[in-house]
Amino acid sequence: MSNTTSTLPAGQATAPRDKRRFSIDSIALAAPGGLFLIVLLAIPTLSLIGLSFQGMDGAFSLSIYEQMFGAKIYIDVLVNTFSIAFQATVLCLVFGYPVAYWLSRLENRPRRFAMWFVLLPFWTGALLKNFSWIVLLARNGIANSVLQSMGMEAPADLLYQRTTVIFAVAHTMMPLAIMTMLPSMLAVDRTLVPASRTLGSKPMQSFWRVFFPLSMPGATAAGLLVFVSAIGFFITPQLLGGPRDTVIGQLLIQQVTQMLNWRLAGAIATMLLAVTLIFVLLYDRVFGISSVTGGASAKLSSGPVRDFGHRVLNLIAMIATAISEAFAKVLGGYRFGWLLPTVAIITVLVLLIPVVAFIPMAFGESSFLEFPPRGLSFRWMETYLTSPVWTDATLRSFYIALACAVLTAFIAGLGGYGVARSNGKLGSIAFMGFMLPMIVPNIVIAVSLAYFFANIGLLATDIGIILGHTVVSLPVVFIIVLTTFKAHDWRLDQAAATLGANRFQVLRHITLPMCQGGLIAGFLFGFLHSFDELTIAMFVGGGLRQTLPKQMWDDVILSVSPTLAAASLVVLLVVTVLFVLAEVARPRA
Amino acid sequence: MTNFKMNRRTLLKSGAAGAMVLAAPAILTRQAFAADSLTIGDTGGPYAEAFRLAFYDPFEAETGIRINNIVLSPDPVPQYQMLVDTNYFLMDVSVMTPEHIDRLNREGDYFEPLNLPNVNSDDFVQGAITDKFAAVYMFAISMGYRADTLGDNAPESWADFWNTTQFPGRRSLYRSPITTMEIALLADGVAIDDLYPLDIDRAFASLDKIKNEIAVWWTSGAQSTQILQNGEVDMLNIWNTRAQTVIDDGAPAAISWVEGHYNLGGWTIPKGSPKADMARRFIEFTLDPERQAKYTEILAVSPTHLKGYDFVPEDKRGNLPTAPGHIEKLRPLDNAYWGENLSAVTERFEAWLLS
Amino acid sequence: MSNMSNPTTKLSIRGLSKTYNKTVALQPVDLEVKTGELLTLLGPSGSGKTTLLQLISGLVDVTTGNLVIDGVDQTDAPVHQRDIGVVFQSYALFPHLTVRENIAFPLQMRKVPADEIKTRVDDALAMVGLAHAGDRSPRALSGGQQQRVALARCLVYRPSVILMDEPLGALDRKLREVMQDEIKRIHRETGATIIFVTHDQEEALALSDRICLMNNGQIEQVGTPREMYEAPQSVFVADFIGVSNIFSGTVENGQLRTDAGLLPLSADAPAETCAVMIRPEDVILNGTASWALKGTVVESTYAGSETRVTIALDGDKSLIVRRPAKSEDMARGLAVTVSWDQAHARYLTK
Fold it and tell me: ABC transporter domain location, by residue (chain C) (predicted)?
C-alpha cells in the first residue's frame, strides 16, 4: 500500500506498523469533508429541529406541533407531497427503465451519443423545463392544437391538474432515474441471458428471471434518489399545479420567505425529515441500502422479502410469456424487437421537447412567451444582455458556481482519495457521510442553512450560497472523484515510488495526471450543480442575493417575459458547453 | 461601507476566516456598482418598463446617477424586513402599497422619513403623500375576461361571475384573500359601500359555491397576464394594468370596471439606507405631474399628482382607473383592514383552498 | 465407454457456415457427433471453434447449412427448445440466485414438479461434490467450485448434447487437471454427449474421444487423439498437436531437399510429400544410422521426467529432442549428429 515501504528496508518489523499508519493517514483526508458536513449539515439541521421544540420563551414545548397537527392543512400537504413524489417515482421507473435498458444494449459509441440526449435535459434544470410546459400545455397551446387537429372537440384542461403535476415531476426527475439505473444494467454479465436461454427459458422468462433481478440494485437506487428529490421539489407544483397540489416545499417557502416563522418552518422540516428517514430505513430493510451505492456483495439477502420478490418475478415472467405467446399466435410469429427502441426513443424525445421548445421562444416578437413564437426578433436577447439585473445575476451565478466548484472539488477530492485508499470501517462511514446530503431532502437543507446563517450573519450573503451549494453538490462530485480514484491502478504509484519518487512527486507526476479527467469532470459537475441550483439560492439568498436561477424563478413568477427564454438560452449554451467538456474529460470505466 | 463592515464582522464572529477568500469577488462586485447609482425595487413587467421611460432614464440623464431596478417578491414585506434587519441594501428605494406599510409598521421601524419640504401634499390625491410614503400611481383591481369566447355575453358583476350556467367559461381568482374576499361578498349581494369590515364567514360561504369552478388560482401579476393572454381562462379578477398589457399586445381581452377597487403605489426608503439622500432626490423627481403622465404611454395607471391627468395623451386616458365611467364604479381598498387581518385570513384562506 | 460400441449419430452438421458482415467466421463444414462421445473442437483463437459451438447452441443464427440433433432438424429452432446444455467459459452463474436455485433453474423452466426438482438438484450437487454448498451464493465459491456448479446446472436436466466453451480456461494448471478428470468421470457415469471447445491441445488429448481440429474457419482433421498425434494429415495438425520437428522441402530422387540438408524418404512416402515430421521423443542423438544431420547443442533444459535438448542444424533450422532425464548432460556447444528411424517419420502432403 504505502510507497514509503519501498524506500525502507523491507524488514518484518517495520512493514505492518507502517501499513497501519498509512491507513490512518489516508482516511484522515476525509476529515475536512466530515467537519464541513458537521458544521453545515448536521448542526444547522439539528438546531432547526431543536428550535421547533422550543416555545416562545425558549423552554421545551410542543406548542408548534400542536398548532401544526391541529391545522389539518399541514397533514394534507404532507400527504400531497408524498403522493406526488411516489407516483412520479413510479412513472420514472416504469418509463426510465426501458430507456436505460435500451441504452445498456447499445454499442458503446451509439450509447455515448444517445446518453447526451438524456443528460442534456438533466443539466438544463427543472425551472426551464417546467416553465416550458406552461406554454406548451396551455389551453390554446400547441399540445391542444395538435389534439384538436386529431379530432378532439373542446380543448383539454391540461394545466393545473394533478396528473400534469405528476407527469412534469416525473419528467424532471427521469434523467436522474435513467442515469442511476444504467450502470447496474451495464454491469450485468452479458453471458447470463444467453446462458439462461440455453437452460431452456423463453426470452420473456430470461428477462424477468435473470436480467431484471440483476438490474434491481440500480432500479432501487434510482427509486430512492428520485423519491427523496421529489419530496423536496416545489417548482412543478408551484407552476403547474392547483391549490390541491400544494406540497411541503411551497409551505416552507411561505413560512420562511413570507411569514419568517422559523419555528413552524422548523416543525414542518422536522416532520418532512422524519418521514423521509423512516422511508429510507424501511427501504433499507426491504432492498438494502447498499443498492444505492451500487456495491455488489457476495452475500445473498435471505428471508421472506427475497422469497416474495422471486415469487412475484416468476409470476410476472409467466404472465409476460403467456401474453407474448398469445400475441405471437394471433399475429403469426410477429417480432416485437422494434417495441423497446420505439418506447425508449419516444421517451427521450419527450424529455427533450421542453428544452428544445425554449430556443425559438427566445427570438419571438411578442411580449409574451408563446409557442410557436410569432416573428423573429433579437430584442429579448438584447434586453437580457443589457439589463443589469440579468447580467448581475448571471455574473453572480458564475462566480458562485466557480467558488463552489473549487471548494467542492477540494473537499471531495481529499475525501475521495482518502476513502478510495481505505478499506476500513471508517471508510464506509465516511462514504455514507458524504452521501448524506442526497438523503436529506434539499429543501430541509436549504431551510436549516437559512436559519443557521441568519443566526451567524451569513444569511443573504454570497458566501452563504456558496457554502450551501457546496453541501448539496458534494455527493455527486464525491462519487465521480471516488470512482476515478478507485479505478486508478495504485501499483503505478508504487512503481513510481520504487523508481525514487517521494509522496508528493508520485501525486504530482503519476496520480493527478492519471486521474485528472475524473477530477476535471468533478469540478465541472460541481460548477454545473451550483449554476443550476434554485432551492438553496432562494432560501439562503434571502431574496437579496439573486443568482441566475433565482432571477429566472422571480421572472417566471413576476413578469413572464421572453427575456426569460433568452436567459434560458444562455443557460442552455453554458450548460451544454460545460457538460460536453465534463463528458469528454470524464474517464470511461 | 456598512456593507463591508457587516461582512467582516460576521466573518470574524463565525470564525470562517478562510471564507474571506471566497468573499472577495462578492465584495468587489458590490463596490464596483456602488458609486453613484440607485437601485429601485419595483413590481417588474410593464411597471418596470413604464418607470424606466418616465423616471429612471430621465433621472439618469439629468443627474448622472445610474438607476438599476430589481423585481420585488409578490409579497415584498418579508424581503424588506430582512433587508433592513441585515443592513444589506439590495435596493435603496422600494415600491409599496399602504397595506404593506401598515404591516411593516406593526413589526417595527422600517422606513426612513422622506422629508420632502418642496412637496405639497394638497397637490396630490388623498393619502398619496405621508412622512414615509410618496405614491406615484393609482391602480385598480377588477374583472378581466376574454372577448373572443364570451363575446356579447360578458359578465357585468361579480354575481355574474358566480353564475356559471348563464356565463359559462373557465374562471380564475387571485390566490390571496385581498380583493378575493371583497368580491365573494359582492357576489353574495353585499353592497359595495358596506363591505368593510369584511364578514369573513359569509365570504367563505360564498367562495364555497364557486370553488369547484375555479380552474386556476393565480399567484402573481405575471401569471394573471399569461393566463388571460393565452386564453387559459375566460374570466378572472385582475389588476387593470396587467389586463391592459394583454389588450395592448393584441389579445382579445377586455376589462369590466364594475365593482372594482383601487389602491395607491409609491416609494419608500428602507431604514438606514446609506443612500437615503440620493433616494429622496429621486422621489422628488418623480412627483412631477408631467413625468407621471409619461408612464401612461406604457402602463395604464393614473398619476397621483392632481394635474397629472392633463398631460396624459388623449388615446390613453380611456384606459386609466380614473377615467370617467371607471372611477365611479371603483372604491378604495381598505389598507388598514388588511394590514391588521391579512395573516389570519390568509391562513384560513390557504387551508380552505386545500380542503 | 459402453456407448461407443454401438455408435449412433447424435448430432449431424451439414454445410454449416457463418458470415458476419462479409467476414467469414466459419466456412461450410460437415461434422458428425456420435451418441455418448466427448468431442473436442480444438484450434487457435479465431479458428471458428467458438462460432461452431454457438451455431450448435442456437445463440447465433446460421448463415447456411443444417443442424440435425437426434434426427430432427434444429437449424432454426429457438435456443430454449433445442435441449442442449452450455457450460460457459465465465460459468454464467446467476449471482442473484443461490447455488441450489441456479441448478434448479433449468428444471423450473421445464415445469418439473417441485419435489422432483429437489431430488434431482440434490443428486446433481452430490455428483459434483458440492452437497454442502447448496445455499451459498455462487460469488462465495472458488473458481473450481463455480465450475462444478455450472456443470451440475447443465447435467441436472440431462440435455441431449452438452456444449462446453473453454470451461477450464480460467483455472490454474493443477485445478484444471483435477477438473479434467472430473469431467471424464461425469462423462463416463452419465454417458452424455459432450462437445468441448479448447485451444489447449494437451487438454484435448487428455479428454477427448475424438478431436476436431479447426483452422481458419475450416475443419483440418477429425480423429481420435492417437490418430491426431501419430497420423497428422497436414503440417498444421502436426505442428498444433504435440511438439514436433517439421522439415519442409521438395522431393528429389527419393529424398527431401530441406534447408537443413537432404533427408531420406522411405519407399512408401507419397510422391507429393512436402514435409517430414518427427516427434522429439523419436529423434536419435549420435546414433548409428546410415545417415545423419550434424548439429550443435544450444540449450539443454532439465524438466524432471525428461530433458529437452535444442539442437541447431544447418540453414538456421533447430530441432527439439526429448531424452530420459537420467541420460547424461549435454553441454552447450557440443557437436552431435541426429537421425531417426524411418518408421517414426510422418510424410505430410499439405
Answer: 11-241
CA separation (Å) from B190 to A370, B167, B185, B187, B196? 40, 21, 6, 7, 10
Q: Grid coordinates in use for C81? A: 427448445
Mutate to test the interface with A, among C53, C60, C74, C79 (most CBs of A within 10 A): C79
Residues from chain A contacting residue C53 (CB–CB below 8 Å): none
Question: Chain A contact for C153, CB < 8 A?
Answer: yes
- What residues in B contact A453, CB-CB < 8 Å? none
Per the CB < 8 Å rule, is A194 touching C96?
A: no
Percent of chain B with pLDDT over 90: 61
**Cross-chain residue pair A159–B220, CB shorter than 8 Å:** no
Please give the residue range of the domain that contains residue C110: 9-231
Residues of A in contact with C106 (CB under 8 A): 199-201
Q: State whether C335 and C187 are in the same domain.
A: no
Q: Are the beta carbons of C86 and A198 separated by less than 8 Å?
A: yes
- My answer on whether C57 and C120 are in the same domain is yes
Chain A, residues 544-583, CB within 8 A of chain B, namely 544-546, 554-561
Check CB contact under 8 Å for B13 and A458. Answer: no
* H or E stretch at A487: helix A462-487
Q: How far is CA C69 from CA B161, C17, C33, C73, C293, in A?
A: 82, 17, 9, 6, 53
The full set of domains in chain B, from first to last, is 8-138+263-332 (3.40.190.10), 140-261+336-354 (3.40.190.10)
Cβ contact (<8 Å) for C95 and A214? Answer: yes
Q: How confident is the model at residue A336 (pLDDT cuts 50, 70, 90)?
A: low
Query: SS in 3 state form for chain C?
Result: CHHHHCCCEEEEEEEEEEEECCEEEEEEEEEEEECCCEEEEECCCCCCHHHHHHHHHCCCCCCEEEEEECCEECCCCCHHHCCEEEECCCCCCCCCCCHHHHHHHHHHHCCCCHHHHHHHHHHHHHHCCCHHHCCCCHHHCCHHHHHHHHHHHHHCCCCCEEEEECCCCCCCHHHHHHHHHHHHHHHHHHCCEEEEEECCHHHHHHHCCEEEEEECCEEEEEECHHHHHHCCCCHHHHHHCCCCEEEEEEEECCEEEECCEEEECCCCCCCCCCEEEECHHHEEECCCCCCCEEEEEEEEEECCCEEEEEEECCCCCEEEEEEECCCCCCCCCCEEEEEECHHHCEEECC
Chain A 380-409, residues with CB within 8 Å of chain B CB atoms: 388-389, 392, 395-396, 399, 403, 407
User: Looking at the structure, do residues C188 and C213 belong to the same domain, yes or no?
Assistant: yes
Residue A529 φ/ψ, nearest 5 degrees: -60, -45
pLDDT per residue over B84-107, tens digit each? 887 778 789 999 999 999 999 988
- Which A residues in the span 28-67 are in contact with B, Cβ-Cβ below 8 Å? none
Say if C237 falls within a structural domain: no
Which of the 8 DSSP states describes residue A255? I
To the nearest whole angstrom, how far is the Cα of A211 from the nearest Cα of chain C? 9
Find, in chain A, the residue whose alpha carbon is nearest to that of B84. Answer: A544
For residue C88 the three cell numbers come to 460457459
In this prediction the ipTM stands at 0.77
- Give pLDDT tens digits for C182-236: 899 989 988 889 999 999 998 999 999 999 999 999 999 999 999 999 889 889 9
The identity of residue A143, as a single letter, is A
Q: Which domains does chain A have, with CATH numbers?
A: 17-49+388-589 (1.10.3720.10), 62-190+218-296+337-361 (1.10.3720.10)
Query: What pTM value is reported for the model?
Result: 0.81
CA distance B151 to chain A (A): 17
Which of A192, A209, A216 is nearest residue C92 as measured by Cβ atoms? A192
Task: Give me the amino acid identity at A306.
Answer: R
